[in-house]
Amino acid sequence: MRDAYVESLNELSQDMMQLAQIVETTIANTWTALESLDNKLASEIYHGNEDINTRVRECMKKDLTISLMQTPVATDWRHLMATQKILYDIERITDNCADICHYIFHLNKEGGPVTPPTGLQEMYQVMASMVVDVLRLYNEGGIDDIDLIRDKDDIVDMAFTKSMEEISEKMVKEPNHVRQYISYVLIVKYIERMADHASNITDWILYRSNNMLK
């Protein structure tokens, strides 16, 4: 019975590592699509999101099965509980990638391109590094760099505020391009949300470690 329990935990761990790789690739490809306004790549990401959600739900099901059927010890229970919550944030992160791709379609549909907000690439890269770092910490079982990840979330928040101000000014100066700038408002908001979800994952990593920061 114990062997089956350990095997189930190992299988879930392998699934989570594979999911992390898929998430990292999706985030990287989403930026490529956004930077180049590549409708084809955006469509692949948008329509492929359901496959990622299916993987997430499969991991959730395995996690719940272990929690309910295998009688985990206290340490493992905290790990399983944290994994369930982390999976929700992972699903939302990839949903936001699909959301961004949806607005790439809008940017292309509304006519000629407009200049994206200053610092958009840097904002996206900081967010992407947060996701990569938290998934690495989850899979490696550590809590190093938690404070650094949270500091990055503050950087994304500041970039979000600055971008909103810049887009508002451009809407006034270029009223013919308001629809495109609205798309950028939503894109920037999704990036900010992705960083928030990454920050949420740090809380559950700390919960799992039973070493919450004061």
UniProtKB/TrEMBL annotation:
**Gene3D superfamilies membership:** Phosphate transport system protein phou homolog 2, domain 2
Question: GO biological process annotations for this chain's record?
Answer: intracellular phosphate ion homeostasis; negative regulation of phosphate metabolic process; phosphate ion transport
Q: Classify the source by domain of life.
A: Bacteria
Predominant place of localization: cytoplasm
User: Which NCBIfam families did the record assign?
Assistant: phoU_full
Q: What is the lineage of its organism?
A: Bacteria, Bacillati, Bacillota, Negativicutes, Veillonellales
- Source organism per entry reads Megasphaera paucivorans
Which family does the similarity line name?
Belongs to the PhoU family.
Q: Which GO terms describe its cellular component?
A: cytoplasm
The record describes its quaternary structure and partners as: Homodimer.
SUPFAM superfamilies assigned to the protein according to its UniProt record, in alphabetical order: PhoU-like
Q: Which UniProt keywords apply?
A: Cytoplasm, Phosphate transport, Transport
Q: What is this protein called?
A: Phosphate-specific transport system accessory protein PhoU
Q: Which Pfam families match?
A: PhoU
Q: What does this protein do?
A: Plays a role in the regulation of phosphate uptake.
Localisation per UniProt entry: Cytoplasm
Q: Where is the PhoU domain?
A: 17-103, 120-205
Q: Which residues form the signal peptide?
A: none
